[in-house]
Amino acid sequence: TKSDSFLLDDLCFPQLNSSCRKIIRPPSLSMLIYITLSSISVVTVVLNLLVIISLCHFKKLHTPTNLLLLSLAVSDFFVGLLMVFQIILIDGCWFLGDLMCAVYFVLDYAVTAASIGTMVLISIDRYVAICYPLLYPTKVTQTRVKICVSVCWVACFLSHCLILKDNIEQPGRYNTCIGECVAVIEYYAGIADVFISFIGPVTVIAILYVRIFVVAVSQARAMRSHIKDVTLQGSVRITVKKSEVKAARTLGVVVVVFLICVCPYFCVTLSGDDAVVSASSAAFVMCLFYVNSCLNPLIYAFFYPWFRNCIRVITHSQLMSNVEML
Question: Model pTM?
Fold first, then answer.
């Protein structure tokens, strides 16, 4: 009958009685969600890809700080790619199998954690550069930064493989119907994840930022007290201190944006004894989590003149090559 056909159309897999039901929304709302998620995904991938190309192509940019920016851009680039799976789940149906669902959650958790971990490394780098400028060239080297970045990525993957161990060992064990994609995190594992991915990083960043702010303010006061004795050497100091204040302000913006984007997600994680994270039902908090990766290149890269110069060079080179082909 006609009513039966409508019921079958509501199922993810109409041929299976145990299939999950699709999430029914007004067409206009579904289209809005598709456009929003797709736009965030494309912008995130494009912006971070531009940062990656710029940092890899131009040798003058191969510095310890820019290695950290490269790590952040790579993690955020993959976050943008993983949003494709979130788009697939808009209707509440997962068609890629239980194993791919488990792999998706591991990659999603690990990559976003790597992004947050790299943000911590960047704040440490800025702390040393601003508070201990004379020690910075010897303490922060490219080799040490590469080791720190490698340890960060490996630790993120290992820790989240352990947290999601049950989901990996038996993919789909927590599904209530066919076509569902959920990951269940035990209470204590969820608490550990919150400390590793949220409370710990936020605490470190906040402490370092307060220290940077105090140093920047004290230097600004010292600069004003000696403004009458400006010399050539003094003008150099003023330039350095202005850049330090700018770095402190940039880090403050990062902290605020980071908290706005990730707080809702971790509040959901702590809302129950067993945190059930459904990629379809938690779309809003997941999107906020993803938006942070879209904003990172704007905050870290667009604030630097070298990035705009690199974009001009890359665009000009591409245009010239197209002209030569014609």
Answer: 0.80
